[in-house]
Amino acid sequence: MKSGFKFSAYQQLPQDPFDKLFEIFKELIVHTSGDFDEAIDWLRQLDDEYQLTTPEYTIDDFIRDLIERGFIRQEIRPDGSGETELSSKLEQLIRKSALEQIFGDLAKRGTGNHGSKSDGRGDELTGGHRAYQFGDAPELIDVTASLRNAHQNNFGADLQLTEDDLLVNETEYKSQMSTVLMIDISHSMILYGEDRITPAKKVAMALAELITTRYPKDTLDIIVFGNDAWPVQLKDLPYLQVGPFHTNTVAGLQLALDILRRKRNTNKQIFMITDGKPSCVREKDGRYYMNSNGLDEYIVEQCYNVARQAKKLHIPITTFMIAQDPYLQRFVNNFTQANQGKAFYTGLKGLGEMIFEDYKNNRKKRLR
Where is there biased composition of kind Basic and acidic residues (predicted)? Predict the structure, then answer.
């Protein structure tokens, strides 16, 4: 009797109409910086072009379900006009979706904390063993493994447990990390018809969700920088918009350092996502010095000074430059050398994966 495989045409599994629209809606909400009405307008246009709905389930039915499931709130004013707001429940789902999109491989590996590169008398068991060394804590001795080792070493003779038979559980230190994520919201993030702010927001949301859910002992502060720099809350991320700003990299870095100085743990780092050159600084008298033509030496030198200052504080800066211009790359090279940090030159694709890999590496603590 012959056996084998039988192939047939792929048939897509039926999808709940709400779930189908909801996935698209979450993407549109990020693109529109949280503008519900604009996102729905885009959804209706997509529906007209791709027939996303049916007579049995329309866009209006979808909106009703969003309200009933607690994803949006509608407030009616006394004059009869209304305003629609996203709920915290939806904001969290948007961050979770960003995490799955950008760090999807991580989600498959399960949860846990980052470890250091050193073994020893740490605070987490690794599952491995090593030979006992003088000074090891007695509670780290694995009695079962040691007896098994003694039996193997004295096979055929009377069982004797010696110091050479002792095995201890390997441990590793779990270090805490304080991270400041800087996001460039200067006008160039939407210049030339290319949307760079949406992927940057997605990365920020994914990293925020990663830290808050997987590494609760860590801290994450988020700041944006244009002409000036200011902190934003986690819930503000979907609503970030690019302004008519220059790029005051110095202000962003100084604010990041001020935040990290107040953190008690010793492991600190800065991530900076930017697509353009520094073009603005604020003088001591409050006036702005701006120059968008090339790289201004006065502005650039102040960037280098802050980079050196961060180096003295043992705070590495990892720059993710979303630009391919050779003269900008030279600037980032010099900036990175001044800080002894890291730099990645990248398009928008793969940005999130690189940020996670560097986050994982930077927060490991070497112990002597």
Answer: 116-127
Distance (Å, whole) CA 143 – CA 35? 62
Strand partners, 281: 289
DSSP-derived secondary structure letter, 103: S
Residue 223: count of CB within 10 angstroms of its CB:
21
- Cα gap 183→270, rounded to integer Å: 11
Would you identify the CATH topology of the domain 178-362? Answer: Rossmann fold (3.40.50)
**pTM, entire model:** 0.73
- Confidence band for 19, pLDDT divided at 50, 70 and 90: very high
Beta bridge partners of 183: 224, 273
Q: What is the pLDDT of residue 272?
A: 93
Are 285 and 195 in contact, with CB atoms under 8 Å apart?
no
For the chain, what are the domain ranges? 17-86, 119-172, 178-362
Tokens 């305003």, residue located: 83
Across 15-24, 164-173, 249-258, 335-344, the highest mean pLDDT is recorded for 249-258
Rounded to whole angstroms, the Cα distance separating 193 from 351 reads: 20
Tokens 């609503």 — which residue?
239
Burial 64-89 (b: 16+ CB within 10 A, else e): ebbeeeebbeeeeeeeeeeebebeee
DSSP letter at 14?
Answer: P
Residue with tokens 């009933």: 68
What is the residue whose two structure tokens read 């009695």?
Answer: 143
Instruction: Give phi and psi for 78, each to the nearest 5.
Output: -60, -30
CB 203 within 8 A of CB 351: yes
Residue of 176, 181, 223, 107 lying closest to 355 (CA atoms): 181
Partner residues linked to 274 by β-bridges? 321
DSSP class of residue 315 equals: -
- Please report which residue ranges of the chain form alpha helices under DSSP H: 17-31, 36-50, 59-68, 88-102, 104-109, 143-153, 197-214, 249-261, 297-312, 326-339, 351-362
Average pLDDT score over residue span 11-38:
89
The percent of residues in the chain predicted with pLDDT above 90, rounded, is: 49
Orientation angle between helical segments 297-312 and 326-339, nearest 10 degrees:
30
Question: Cα separation of 119 and 140, whole Å?
Answer: 13
